[in-house]
Amino acid sequence: MTEPLPEATALNGIYLYCLARPQCLSAAHALAGKPLAGVDERYPVTAVVADDVVAVAGEVVIGDFSEQNLQTLSWIGERAARHEAVVARTMAASPVLPVKFGTIYRSRDSLMAFVQRHRKNITLGLDRLIDKSEWSVKGYLIEEDARQIIAAADAEVQSRRAALSLSPGLRYLQQKQLDARIETALEAGLARVKQDLLHSLAMRSIDSATLRLHASAVTGRAERMVFNAAFLLDPETLPDFRAALAQQQDAYQTIGLALELRGPWPAYNFCPDLSEAQT
């Protein structure tokens, strides 16, 4: 695993998985022992050492990362899983700064130049993430159940329902108005719930980040995703965080909100900004 990384050819590039500390290279730790299958299985995962920073990397064929392949889920899925496996194994022995899938440098020298330019931020980031990991909390809502709960608790809605016209045309308009009132109440209630939930959990974490919501086509769930956030935790904060999340679940399950905690993961959402054009 610690074999020197060869200089890339004109057709090959240097693929970066993550940045770590040298302890990940020892025989007792992650990157020693059984070889890892990298994003490109034809080339081994290895490491480039620059003093106290290790760039976990490997060769890839640059042409494989074409726009067509990068838009093909079947092509990305398997390789993204290998990427994550390399980062996870490194994380078992060292703090890591994970790098997004598809980060490629033209040469070993350009990778080393990147590390040297950002050495201060890389070092500070690795120091900050010692014994810490990322956890996610996602919230899913069965919307129809929530609407029924809101309608049942709203006296005005119940009164207007009881007074619906017998005329089909007028009744249709009145029902549309009721539906709009319920929908407005639902969105307002969700905004308050999300704000309270984030505040409660953020207080019990080292750092937090709100993430974009995904459609059912992405989540694979029929319920609507209404909350998505990442939290940076360590062994000391995790128990209190779990307890607070359980309390929040108890408080909001009456409106049909289900909260899901997943982790630990590398801290993808809590890394210093090292973005730049690759050379």
Radius of gyration computed on alpha carbons = 25 Å
Give the biggest beta sheet. 5 strands, antiparallel
| Tally of domains | 2
- Rounded to the nearest angstrom, the distance between the terminal CA atoms is 25 Å
Helical stretch tally = 9
Contiguous uncertain segments of 5+ residues: none
Shape: elongated
Query: SS-based structural class?
Result: alpha+beta
Tell me, rounded to a whole number, the average pLDDT. Answer: 85
What can you tell me about this protein's structure?
The protein has 279 residues and is an alpha+beta fold. It has two domains: 12-130, no CATH class; 133-268, no CATH class. The protein contains nine helices and nine strands. Strands 1, 2, 3, 4 and 5 form a five-stranded antiparallel beta sheet that branches. Strands 7-8-6-9 form a four-stranded antiparallel beta sheet. Helix 7 (168-202) runs antiparallel to helix 9 (238-252). It is elongated and about 80 Å long. The model has no long low-confidence stretch (mean pLDDT 85).
Please outline the helices and strands.
Layout: E1 12-20, E2 46-50, E3 53-61, H1 67-70, H2 73-91, E4 96-98, E5 104-105, H3 108-117, H4 119-128, E6 133-141, H5 143-153, H6 155-162, H7 168-202, E7 207-210, H8 216-219, E8 224-233, H9 238-252, E9 257-265
Antiparallel strand pairs: 1-3, 1-4, 1-5, 2-3, 6-8, 6-9, 7-8
